[in-house]
Amino acid sequence: MSCAPTHAVWHQASGAVELAWSDGARAVLSGAALRSACRCAGCERVRRSGGRVDAPVAVRVVDLRPMGEGAVQICFSDGHERGVYPWVYLRDLVHEAIA
Ligand SMILES: [Zn+2]
Questions:
Q1: Which of 32, 33, 39, 96 has the fewest C-beta atoms lying within 10 Å of its C-beta?
Q2: What is the mean pLDDT of each run of 10 residues along the chain (99 residues)?
Q3: Is residue 2 part of a domain?
Q4: Separation of 90 CA from ligand 1 center, angstroms?
Q5: Cα of 43 from ligand 1 centre, angstroms
Q6: CA 20 to ligand 1 center in whole angstroms
Q7: Gamma-butyrobetaine hydroxylase-like N-terminal domain location, by residue (predicted)?
Q8: Do 61 and 81 meet the contact criterion of CB atoms below 8 Å apart?
Q9: What CA–CA distances, in Å, run from 66 to 15, 58, 99?
Q10: How far does residue 70's CA lie from ligand 1's centre (Å)?
């Protein structure tokens, strides 16, 4: 199961990403929300040492790069582009956003 969304649209003007799945789950995730949820090694190190990954509110998504079937790399306007987001993880974020 790939968990790939039926719909993944980068809104260039706002820097947000709109995602939708065939079961009706759908949300627009802001650049800041995605940046704060980054799970790259650097961000995970910050969390492990007790810190928080606090994205500036104005941070925007500047590129989405598919990584095979199961994930997407997200590049941010603050130059951070190490985050690879499995679709299944983004799905969890969307469910949190709409809960
Ligand atoms: Zn990161």
A1: 96
A2: 86 96 94 95 96 91 93 96 95 88
A3: no
A4: 14
A5: 4
A6: 23
A7: 11-91
A8: no
A9: 17, 24, 27
A10: 18
* Cβ-based burial of 39 (10 A; exposed 0-12, middle 13-18, buried ≥19): middle
Our count of domains for the chain comes to: 1
Instruction: Kindly give the distance from the C-alpha atom of residue 82 to the centroid of ligand 1, in angstroms, as a whole number.
Output: 6
Q: Is 93 exposed, middle or buried (0-12, 13-18, 19+ CB in 10 A)?
A: middle
What CATH number is attached to the domain comprising 35? Answer: 3.30.2020.30
CA of 31 relative to ligand 1 center, distance in Å = 13
Domain that holds residue 39: 7-98
Cα 83 to ligand 1 centroid, rounded to whole Å: 5
3-state SS, one letter per residue, for the chain? CCCCCCEEEEECCCCEEEEECCCCCEEEECHHHHHHCCCCHHHHHHHHCCCCCCCCCCCCEEEEEEECCCEEEEEECCCCCCEEEEHHHHHHHHHHHHC
